[in-house]
Amino acid sequence: MSAPGANLKINADRLWDSLMEMAKIGPGVAGGNNRQTVTDEDAEGRALFQKWCEDAGMTMGVDTMGTMFMRREGTDPDALPVYVGSHLDTQPTGGKYDGVLGVLGGLEIIRTMNDLGIKTKHPIVVTNWTNEEGTRFAPAMLASGVFAGMHTQDWAYAKTDAEGKTFGDELARIGWKGDEEVGARKMHAFFELHIEQGPILEAEGVDIGVVTHGQGLSWTQITVTGKDAHTGSTPMPMRKNAGLCMARILDLVDEIAWSHAPHAVGAAGHIDVYPNSRNVIPGKVVFTVDFRSPDLAVIEDMEAKLRDGAEQIADTMGMEIAFEKVGGFDPVEFDEGCVRAVRNAAERLGLSHMDIISGAGHDACWINRVAPTAMVMCPCVDGLSHNEAEEITKEWAEAGANVLMHAVIETAEIV
Ligand code: HGY
Ligand code: MN
Ligand code: MN
């Protein structure tokens, strides 16, 4: 398999302009994005991506989970395609690059190949996976999870948002419920470019993360039930304060994560307090504990310690407590051959690189179960992500997209 020459480079200005253009859709309130899954803003971003891809000569397929597959033909139409992509949906207070860099980086590869008249044996398919973030509809990586056979489509369609709307209805409403069977597509390989969303690459002064593994994730939704009561006239001994119970459990979450330092992490990002009135003691709280570790045994230990400890706290305080596992996946080891293609690409391009474990979850973590998969990471400023201030440099985007292109073209076999 011939490797592309080191002089093969993407058009960094065009990639950057596309990132900035996409960022105008679903703007946040502080310079980032709020383009949540299967909203009208998501539909607008999809339409723009579709137009750009069709302008680049690609043909579109959409599956019944709304995932977009934009195909550039290879010289052998029967060869399994090389897939490359990520997600266009964002957090409610998301950045401009999380997911989007991987989708538009894939498009830039095609645009560059068109410019240079490059052909490959295998077709190349640029992919936008629906609902990677899992914020509006849990869990994260919903569509890639259905594609990999981890969830049924009916289960996914029935997931509801805070307003009680279902994912299936909202996907249909925005007009992006496709007709392809989810998971029917077979892949030669899948590559995903993503910002690191952590501080390591920038701190090490390294341009490229060669992602060998992804840490595992566990989401446990906890419901604590106490009793609504007046915050003024209810004597302290009579209170059943669900909010206080949650606070003590969150302190326990922090303690459990620290007990597995330095790699384990834990927090709750989703917290609903009821009735959430200034002068009512909260009678109910619903919150989701997010534990992560590269080691499955550590995740399982943290889950067990959480249940035991939280039950004890609730019993001591006379509260009811319920647990529901609402998301999770085991730690991931990416495909050696694909990882090598990424590492060779970085070397060929003379870019500084290091092996890294992904702290965040990605569609690649599920697709790795059904196809040889690897990821390329670029640094982000202060390691900040899932924050509207998320920032990268054009040079980092360029380096990441060049490595992605070399790995993809080498795997797709340039002819
Ligand atoms: O939760 C995650 O790690 C990803 O950003 N959805
Ligand atoms: Mn992402
Ligand atoms: Mn994200």
TrEMBL record:
Pfam families: M20_dimer (PF07687), Peptidase_M20 (PF01546). GO terms for molecular function: hydrolase activity, acting on carbon-nitrogen (but not peptide) bonds, in linear amidines; metal ion binding; N-carbamoyl-L-amino-acid hydrolase activity. Keywords: Hydrolase, Metal-binding, Zinc. Its cofactor is Zn(2+). Signal peptide: none annotated. Zn(2+) 2 binds at D98, E133, H386. Belongs to the peptidase M20 family. This is N-carbamoyl-L-amino-acid hydrolase.
